Amino acid sequence: MRLQGMGLWLALVSPGLMAAPVQVQREGVLGTSFEMQVDGGGARGARAVDAALDEIARLEQQLSTWRDDSALSHYNDGHLRTERLPDAVAGVLAACERWRIETDGAFSCRLGGLIAQWRQADASDQLPERAALRRQARALSALPAPTDGPLDPAAGLRFDVDGIAKGYILDRALASARRAAPKASGIRIDIGGDAVYWGHPENRDAWRVDVADPKQPIDNQPGIAHVRLASQAIAASGHHSRGYAIGRRHLSHILDPQDGWPVSYAPTATVIATDAATADALATALSVMPIREGIALVDRIDGAAALVVSDAGIPFASARWPAALVKDEAAPSPAVPTVVIDYEIPAIKADRYRKPYLAVWIEREDGRAVRQLHVLGDRSRWLSELPRWWRHYGRNDPAGALGIARPTRAAGHYTLAWDGRDDRGEPMPAGRYVLRVEAAREHGGHEDIALPFPLGGGASPLQHQGTTEIGRLLLRYDKT
Question: pTM of the entire structure?
Fold first, then answer.
């Protein structure tokens, strides 16, 4: 009798102790795996799951391009007018056009006809004609956005919204779940690795998410990063698990909207955003855009962060990515000042002067690369004339190297900064490091400078005077 009374007291005082989170896993939802967790929802947790699944099924009926009876398929076939489109279809198509403009054409939902040709090529094991695809892609890009009336199938415009639809559906499923369980403290919905997280799980202030290696997504191995999410979404793009197999070639399933051809040596991306549709669209766009331009786009979007990994596995973090990383509370990283690097491209009098190709990066004392800071040069032929940098970053990934490179610069003084983090955005411990600056010039010389410096304990500036292709270097610390 006493034990029963103790149990009743616990239930009355702390009902959360008696209510375990509702967790559900299913296969075949949107053609992939589905996982959902509801914390603090009590008896309504199961209702939240049902509400989310019902909304997913409803939206799939409207947005699927794999179903001939979907509203989007009817619209593509010219059987629906724009004023009769369901709200979901109209909303997704409007978002597609916004992102097409925002990304300068790198993201596009106008490729349904071209995707159908690639599926046919995959089935017949014959490559399509590249020039013809390029002409079609450019013609589709030049078409005005549809307004009133049905689509004209003769124009060749068919919408495929796979690059944003899953994120849109995740957002709407979450909204349905929250209405069904208004007292829940946290909800997680994951469809095929893309996920939306609301609130927080029981006894934690945020959700902790393991970011898989996009090149080798091994389920039982730790990922390449761990992030904290609170009322945020995450999405990833990848080229290695999906694609077209034609002959001995494996081509990406993501097409370049500019020429209708699968992207080659493309980066993969993991994106965090305030909503799943934004994360989904950005992840798709980053797989097509040059890395530097993609990172700049992410930095312009409020609340967005990304980790872009080149085809050779070199990571590039956006400005907000480090803030999302899980901090190791047992061994906090020491605060380190920002390292500011002033470098000079000297003025050289020469009949055949060409502006130099230049790379700046940070190494450990043993020569292992830590962080790539700056690359000037837009041709892989001459970037390879920077042998030390090429060995670390360019040799196995010339496309990725060109993706982050900037145009060469005229003689003058310039400034860079290092925030003490590695290429993945992880903080580096205090210790000894080496600043590397390498430059080479067509019809000119080559120079490679190594400037050792302390991180975390040094305060005095360091300088070095180059002799040929590099002028004065000044390394200083900004503790603010």
Answer: 0.80
